[in-house]
């Protein structure tokens, strides 16, 4: 430290001391400072154990110092200063006394000019330690040297080949000295072989062996060779090898793609004095990386032969992938070799299908890697006949994951190996295992409890593959998941129960029995049961004279009984046929009735009326169309005469009279009711008179269609015939009032005067009776009556209203009007009478 010392330090027993000793350090200052305190730090850590001797000296005690090199610094802390001042420092060194030198050895070769000796110095003393080497011959010292190292070189020229010498080594340092045991030797006993040299090294094709060629200046006949291998700079491996040829050594069990460092040395026989092997120095190292390794073992292969088509049979070839220790690099693919062709299969697969000719006896499989191919594994396609092996006991493990299978075999010397094959039911991926021919059992792993497996054993011989010895097994049975589906038929007081086989994935074991549970009305809620063997026919008769309440069925295996399932009784076939016939007959009758009803026009009309009544009124409202009015057309053309006059004209416009509520009672005077009478002559020539009161409606010229009067008269006659026909059809409805009363309840029909009714129809703007006793003048029928027009009007107005017979008009039949009259006005114009087409839903009185 570059400081101006304020004092000095001393240590006892000294600055160089034995490791682990206690030290006492004194800190002295040149000037007494009463307000200052002295502190000591050992390797930057404060020392707390101290004592003040006087104003200028403080003693510090250090316990068991084990550090090789240490430093102590004394500082002074004064109140008038903010930081401590350094007084002085001291370096300390600790060490051990030297151990006794051991393992002294000396060696030389025939060609060396010196003898090389070495020793082991023991533990490190942490101090400078010197060694004194002396060689004595009897009482004479011929060699003496002091040096720091452990290797000593003694000139060979000062020694005799056959004389014995004694060598001693003394180690000493600050804390003492130690002498070794004497080492006695002669030159001829310490001569070692010459150092060999590796001249060539090559790896073999399989990358797991190497061949070394070495040489030495001496003959190798009496030497033992040792090899030191260092793989990828890891721990060295020593091997003792022998020559298979002069100067050649082969090393086995090497790893591919590994960098090796090789060294070799030769060892002679043991010396009589040293009782140890005399070996040469290790040769200079040779480095080389081993190449990749191709598979060296044949694949385990198997096959499954399928159907034959067009002289070719489908063969699925299976194989086990090679172990990772058997090859290096990348597995590229598998190759299947047939007679004159081959097929390449993906490296990730474990099977492949090929088309093999019918006469092909065998094929082979190899694994192709980046460093070579495995030896071909032969797959025999021949069939050797009956199997010479039989399966024995199958023992399951507790967890159900594996089973042990044993077998016996009578196959002779041509047996090559066994193949154990298994797959779950229903059919799953095929699994298999190759077993040596000397082994009569194996363990199958990877199984699942409750799953059925089909186990097969094949014997592969030099003559081909035998037939399999097969068996169904479970690694562990579990309770069934369900009961079978079953059906029941009742016959003569007995119940025939038939059931289906339970699917294998629901059995989960070998079914040993089926159990039926049922109750009858007289069993007093006591459940009856019957058991059926699992190997019997899947049907049973149950005697149940009183009938059944319920029946359930269960399936059982060695693990226990599964859940119950309820069954259904199937009716006898005769009952089923009768039920079908009744249903068909009912449907035919119903369809026939509906078809007949739909063919009657009256039914259609009343259905249509019912739909109109149930629907909104605005849907069927026939709104006036002003564009059809001749009055409007005349108003538009009143300034000019039409080019051609028309025979059709609207009545002259009448003034509109507004009637108040007070004048409501006088409404009949404004729009009088018209009484129309008509006399008819019956078959007995007796006149019959019918009177009807017609209430006129408002004038709606926009609705009436413009039809010539002659055409209207013709249409009226046709409509009269339609009305008579419809009247006959309406009579048929009287018998269906109970069936269709709800549909036609709003329509009342009166046929009391059918023989005398004369329809009264509207043609254009006129009310026309259709009868043969009237005369026709352009569609207007007038009765031959006497009197003037005024008398007619008076007679009409005097008709008794009690004679009015109320009728209901069909809204759809605008041309037929089933009303009879006794008298018809012979002349006169009634503008209040609306056409029948505009009187839908109104009542004529």
From TrEMBL:
<feature type="domain" description="Fibronectin type-III">
    <location>
        <begin position="480"/>
        <end position="575"/>
    </location>
</feature>
<feature type="coiled-coil region">
    <location>
        <begin position="706"/>
        <end position="733"/>
    </location>
</feature>
<keyword id="KW-0472">Membrane</keyword>
<dbReference type="InterPro" id="IPR003961">
    <property type="entry name" value="FN3_dom"/>
</dbReference>
<keyword id="KW-0175">Coiled coil</keyword>
<keyword id="KW-0325">Glycoprotein</keyword>
<feature type="transmembrane region" description="Helical">
    <location>
        <begin position="579"/>
        <end position="600"/>
    </location>
</feature>
<keyword id="KW-1133">Transmembrane helix</keyword>
<feature type="domain" description="Fibronectin type-III">
    <location>
        <begin position="195"/>
        <end position="293"/>
    </location>
</feature>
<protein>
    <submittedName>
        <fullName>Interleukin-12 receptor subunit beta-2-like</fullName>
    </submittedName>
</protein>
<dbReference type="InterPro" id="IPR036116">
    <property type="entry name" value="FN3_sf"/>
</dbReference>
<keyword id="KW-0677">Repeat</keyword>
<keyword id="KW-0675">Receptor</keyword>
<dbReference type="Pfam" id="PF00041">
    <property type="entry name" value="fn3"/>
</dbReference>
<comment type="similarity">
    <text>Belongs to the type I cytokine receptor family. Type 2 subfamily.</text>
</comment>
<dbReference type="InterPro" id="IPR013783">
    <property type="entry name" value="Ig-like_fold"/>
</dbReference>
<keyword id="KW-0732">Signal</keyword>
<keyword id="KW-0812">Transmembrane</keyword>
<dbReference type="InterPro" id="IPR052672">
    <property type="entry name" value="Type1_Cytokine_Rcpt_Type2"/>
</dbReference>
<dbReference type="GO" id="GO:0005886">
    <property type="term" value="C:plasma membrane"/>
</dbReference>
């Amino acid at each position: 430290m570059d400081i101006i010392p304020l004092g000095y330090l001393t240590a006892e027993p000294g600055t160089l001391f034995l490791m682990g000793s206690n030290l006492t350090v004194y800190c002295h200052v040149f000037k007494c400072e009463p307000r200052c305190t002295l502190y000591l730090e050992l390797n930057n850590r404060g020392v707390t154990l101290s004592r003040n001797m006087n104003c200028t000296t403080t003693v510090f005690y250090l316990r068991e110092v084990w550090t090789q090199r240490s430093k102590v610094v004394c500082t002074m802390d004064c109140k008038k200063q903010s930081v401590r001042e350094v007084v002085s420092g001291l370096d300390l060194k600790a060490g051990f006394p030297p151990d006794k030198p051991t393992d002294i050895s000396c060696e030389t070769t025939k060609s060396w000019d010196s003898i090389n000796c070495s020793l082991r110095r023991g533990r490190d003393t942490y101090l400078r330690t010197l060694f004194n080497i002396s060689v004595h011959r009897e009482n004479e010292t011929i060699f003496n040297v002091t040096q720091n190292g452990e290797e000593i070189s003694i000139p060979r020229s000062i020694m005799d080949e056959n004389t014995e010498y004694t060598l001693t080594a003394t180690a000493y340092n600050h804390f003492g000295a130690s002498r070794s045991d004497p080492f006695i030797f002669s030159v001829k006993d310490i001569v070692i072989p010459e150092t060999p040299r590796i001249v060539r090294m090559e790896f073999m094709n399989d990358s797991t062996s190497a061949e070394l060629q070495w040489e030495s200046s001496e003959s190798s006949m009496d030497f033992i060779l040792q090899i030191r291998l260092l793989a990828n700079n890891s721990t060295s491996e020593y091997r003792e090898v022998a020559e298979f040829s002069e100067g050649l050594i082969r090393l086995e069990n090497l790893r591919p793609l590994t960098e090796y460092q090789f060294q070799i040395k030769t060892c002679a026989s043991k010396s009589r004095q040293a009782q140890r092997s005399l070996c040469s120095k290790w040769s200079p190292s040779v480095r080389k990386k081993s190449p990749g390794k191709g598979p060296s073992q044949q694949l385990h292969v198997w096959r499954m032969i399928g159907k034959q088509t067009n002289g070719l049979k489908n063969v699925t070839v299976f194989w086990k992938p090679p172990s990772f220790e058997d090859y290096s690099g990348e597995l590229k693919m598998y190759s299947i070799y047939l007679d004159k062709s081959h097929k390449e299969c993906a490296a990730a697969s474990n099977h492949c299908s090929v088309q093999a000719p019918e006469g092909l006896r065998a094929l082979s499989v190899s694994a192709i890697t980046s460093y070579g191919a495995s030896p071909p594994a032969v797959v025999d396609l021949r069939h050797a006949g009956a199997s010479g092996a039989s399966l024995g006991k199958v023992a399951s493990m507790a967890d159900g994951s594996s089973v042990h299978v044993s077998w016996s075999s009578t196959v002779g010397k041509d047996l090559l190996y066994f193949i154990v094959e298994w797959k779950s039911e229903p059919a799953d991926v095929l699994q298999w295992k190759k077993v040596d021919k000397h082994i009569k059992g194996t363990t199958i792993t990877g199984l699942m409890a409750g799953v059925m497996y089909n186990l097969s054993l094949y014997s592969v011989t030099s003559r081909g593959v035998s037939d399999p010895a097969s068996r169904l097994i479970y690694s562990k049975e579990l309770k069934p998941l369900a009961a079978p589906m079953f059906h029941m038929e009742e016959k003569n007081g007995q119940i025939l129960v038939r059931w289906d086989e339970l699917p294998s994935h629901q059995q989960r074991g070998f079914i040993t029995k089926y159990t039926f549970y049922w109750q009858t009305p007289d069993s007093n809620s006591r459940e009856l049961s019957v058991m059926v063997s699992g190997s019997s026919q899947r049907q049973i008769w149950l005697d149940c004279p009183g009938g059944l309440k319920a029946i359930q069925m269960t399936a059982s295996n060695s693990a226990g009984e599964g859940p119950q399932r309820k069954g259904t009784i199937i009716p006898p076939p005769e009952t089923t046929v009768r039920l079908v016939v009744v249903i068909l007959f009912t449907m035919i009758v119903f369809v026939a009735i509906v078809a007949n009803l739909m063919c009657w026009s009256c039914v259609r009309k009343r259905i249509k009326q019912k739909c109109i009544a149930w629907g909104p009124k605005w849907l069927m409202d026939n709104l006036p169309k002003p564009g059809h009015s001749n009055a409007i057309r005349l108003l538009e053309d009143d300034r000019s005469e039409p080019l051609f006059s028309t025979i059709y004209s609207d009545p002259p416009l009448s003034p509109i009279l507004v009637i108040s509520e007070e004048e409501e009672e006088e409404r009949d005077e404004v729009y009088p009711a018209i009484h129309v009478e008509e006399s008819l002559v019956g078959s007995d020539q007796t006149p019959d008179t019918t009177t009807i009161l017609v209430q006129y409606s408002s004038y709606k010229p926009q609705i009436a269609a413009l039809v010539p009067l002659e055409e209207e008269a013709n249409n009226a006659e046709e409509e009269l015939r339609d009305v008579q026909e419809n009247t006959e059809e309406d009579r048929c409805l009287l018998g269906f009032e109970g069936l269709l009363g709800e549909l036609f309840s709003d329509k009342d029909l009166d046929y009391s005067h059918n023989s005398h009714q004369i329809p009264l129809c509207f043609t254009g703007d006129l009310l026309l009776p259709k009868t043969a006793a009237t005369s026709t003048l352009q569609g207007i029928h007038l009765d031959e009556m006497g009197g003037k027009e005024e008398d007619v009007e008076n007679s009409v107005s005097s008709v008794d209203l009690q004679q009015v017979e109320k009728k209901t008009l069909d809204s759809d039949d605008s041309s037929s009007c089933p009303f009879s009259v006794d008298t018809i006005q012979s002349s006169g114009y009634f503008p209040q009478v609306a056409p029948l087409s505009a009187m839908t839903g109104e009542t004529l009185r």
